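Review form for a predicted model. The reviewer records the input and the model, then writes brief findings.
Reviewer: anonymous (R2)
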Amino acid sequence: MSRSGHRFTCLPVLALLLLASPGRTSTAADAGAIVSAERAFAASVRSLGVRDGFLAWLAPASVVFKPGPVMGVAHHQKLPTGWHGLLAWNPVRAAISADGKLGWSTGPWIWKRDSTQKTADAHGEYMSVWRRQTDGRWRVVLDGGIGHGPPTAAEVAVTYSAPVPGARLGSRPLAARQSLYQADATFARLAASEGVPGALERCATHDVVVLREGSLRHDGRGAAVAALTGREARARLVSNAQYIAESGDLGYTYGSFITGAIAAEDTAWYVHVWHRGPAATWRLALQLVMPVPKKRS
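Model under review:
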């Protein structure tokens, strides 16, 4: 729970103009369903413990990051049963696809060794991707997060991000999946040639969420670019997996994120959540980067 060399662009000028207006949630899909599911998931963990609470909500083929991707159900089945400390979280941002079958949320988490403690032992931010199953129930298909220091204030209010669905985005599923892969590849080329802040400047939504280990959540493209400038230069991203909603307006990708030489053990994993608007161009709505802990000498 840099600018130099070749120049790539995630959006043509027309697409930038079309996506400049704020997004609206589709009337056919309510992102509140994601918030309700996330809150119920958190309540299950509080009452059942981490192992059984997660097993009640993970999809059969779910992936969790520890920090690399592992099968979620198998991982949690190996954990001890019972209640072992308090893990709590709440969503503060959520989104859903136009067909109401895929969504995501993010927000703060805390960990206490003892629930009666006044202060938490650890803080961080989570990110979950949700998929509605064939029986109509929501289940987590992707879960990860980062840790950071204590926040200055508790967050309760929820805001929503949403694609602006274009006509017939989901009418060509193979082409849509290929376009999502290409969007991720374009971001990777920009990150390698111009740096991660430059890639975010070109490819992210105005309200993008960016999560980094050791830092509070960065909300918005400007804040994220400012925070990462000078901190992250060029990076090499290699996509491992992609998934897209049937409506063609929301998808996610994940893979490896390397900021230097592999031998330097600075490898991390990334998750990208993408929204696609009326110009049929993908924009990055959330980026999570989870570093692999360095081996102790």
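Findings: The helical segments are 13-18, 32-48, 50-55, 72-77, 173-193, 196-203, 221-228.
Further findings: Residues 148 and 214 are 4 Å apart (CA to CA).
Recommendation: see findings above.
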